[in-house]
Amino acid sequence: MSGIDAVLGARLRTIEAQDRLRRRVPRVHHGAHVVSGGKRLLNFCSNDYLGLATERYPQRAAGSGASALVTGYSPEVAELESAIADYLGRERALVFSSGFAANIGVIDALIGKNDLAVCDALNHASLIDGVRLSGARKVIVPHADIDAMAAALAQSTAGQRLLVSDAVFSMDGDCADAVTLAEVAQQADAWLMLDDAHGFGVMGDGGRGVAARLDQTQLPVLMGTLGKSVGASGAFVAGSGALIDYLVNRARTQIFSTAMAPATALAANAGLSAVRSDDWRREQLFERIGEFQRGVARLGLNVVPSNTPIQPVLIGRDADALLASRVLEEAGCLVAAIRPPTVPEGTARLRITLSAAHSKADIEALLLALARIAE
Ligand SMILES: *Cc1c(COP(=O)(O)O)cnc(C)c1O
Asked: Is 354 in the pocket of ligand 1 (CB under 6 A)?
C-alpha cells in the first residue's frame, strides 16, 4: 500500500465509524422513478422540479437531476469511469463536471492548513486556486526547477506534502519531467499530483499522456480532462480505490454540484474509444507538428521549444502580440494572443495549437501568414 492509501484509508475508516461514509449508486431515471440494481423506486430526492430532466428530449439525456451522491450518478458515468481507469491502468477513476472543479475539489480534499503544497510557477489557474482554497502553505518554485522542489519538500515539517504540477504546460507547451518529479516526491514521502489536461489522448504510449508513464504508486493522483483531446467536456481523477472513495466523500466540487449528464458521459466515452483506437490521429497530428516546426524554424521567430500540439511564438509586448494576431486573422488564420496575467509580464505570445484535423496545406497557410509577422 502506498503512503497515500494508508492515510486516506485511515481517514475513510474514521468517516465510516461516524456512520458518515457515502457511496454512489448508478441510477436510471424514468419520470418520477429511479431504477438501480433491478429495483424501481419512487424518487423523492432529485432537483428535477418540473420533470424536464427525466421526461423530455433532449433534457432526458442532458440532465442528471442531482449530485452524484444523491441520484445523479448514472450508469453512463459509471461506464466512463471504468473505461478511463482501464485505459490508464488505474484501480478507479472519478469524473467531475470540469477540470477546474476537479482540481480545486481534489486539492482541497487532500490537504489542509497544516500541510504543504509545492507548485510549479506555471501551474494552471485551477491548481493554484485549489491550493489557495485548501489553506495549506504553498511554495511556488521557478518553472521546472526540480532542485527547488526537492529543497522545499525536504525543508518542510508539514503534515502532508503535495507536489503538484501541470504535465504539459498549457501556455508554453513543454512537458514536466514526470519521472524525476515522481522520484523527488518519493524521496520526500510527498504525494504527487499531475494535471495532464493537454497530454491525455495525445502524448505518451497509446495516447495515455505524459503522466501515465508513471504507475499508480509513483503518481497516486492523476488528473485529466475530457474537454480537450477527448472532444467532450468534464474531467477525471484516476488512482487507487482509497483515493476515489475518499474524494467521493470529501471533494466538495463533487459532492455539492450536479453530476455529469448521461449524454456528456456517452460523448466522452465515444471520444475515449477513438482516443484509444485511432493511432492514426496521433500520427497525423505529429506529422503536422513536425511540418510546423521545420517551417517555422526558417522564419527566425522566437518559438518556444515544444514537442506537443501547443506551439507558442513569443512576441513580448502585449500590443505587438495583439497586432500579430490581427495580421494572422487577416491572412485567414485564427491564433489567440495570450497576454498577462495568463502569462508572465513581457512574455505575451501567439499560442498556436495544432490538430489532426489540420491538413498539410493548412500548416503551409499558417507558415505563410507567420512569414508576414517575421517581416
Ligand atoms: C483546461 C485546463 C483545465 C481546466 O479544465 P476544464 O475542463 O476546462 O475546466 C485544468 N488544467 C489544465 C492544465 C488545463 O489546460
From this structure: no
Q: Which residue is associated with the grid cell 504543504? A: 116
Q: What are the DSSP E strand ranges found in the chain? A: 28-30, 33-36, 39-42, 92-96, 116-120, 137-141, 161-166, 191-195, 221-225, 235-239, 302-303, 310-316, 336-338, 348-353
Q: Give the ligand 1 atom nearest the CA of 166.
A: 13
43 CB under 6 A from ligand 1? no
Cis before 341 (ω within 30):
yes
Question: Is the separation of the CB atoms in 34 and 71 below 8 Å?
Answer: yes
How far apart, in whole angstroms, are the C-alpha atoms of residue 3 and residue 110? 13
Which of 135, 104, 361 is CA-nearest to residue 253?
Answer: 104
Strand partners, 174: none
Indicate if ligand 1 lies below 6 Å from the C-beta of 227. Answer: yes
Exposure class string for 149-159: b at 16+ Cβ within 10 A, else e: bbbbbeebebe
Take residue 233 and report the three cell numbers written for it. Answer: 467536456
pTM reported for the whole predicted model: 0.95
**One pLDDT digit (tens) per residue for the chain, 375 residues:** 459 999 999 999 999 999 999 999 999 988 899 998 889 999 998 898 888 887 777 777 888 889 999 889 999 999 999 999 999 999 999 999 999 999 999 999 999 999 999 999 999 999 999 999 999 999 999 999 999 999 999 988 879 999 999 999 999 999 999 999 999 999 999 999 999 999 999 999 999 999 988 999 999 999 999 999 999 999 999 999 999 999 999 999 999 999 999 999 999 999 999 999 999 999 999 999 999 999 999 999 999 999 999 999 999 999 999 999 999 999 999 999 999 999 999 999 999 999 999 999 999 999 999 999 988
Q: Which whole-number Å values give the CA distances from 76 to 27, 32, 62, 70, 95, in the listed order?
A: 9, 19, 12, 16, 11
Nearest-CA residue for atom 6 of ligand 1: 99
Q: Which three cell numbers stand for residue 227?
A: 474537454
The answer to whether the CB of 195 is under 6 A from ligand 1 is yes
Q: Which residue type is seen at 183?
A: E
CB 303 within 8 Å of CB 335:
no
The closest residue, in CA terms, to atom 5 on ligand 1 is: 99
Cell numbers found for residue 242 = 482509497
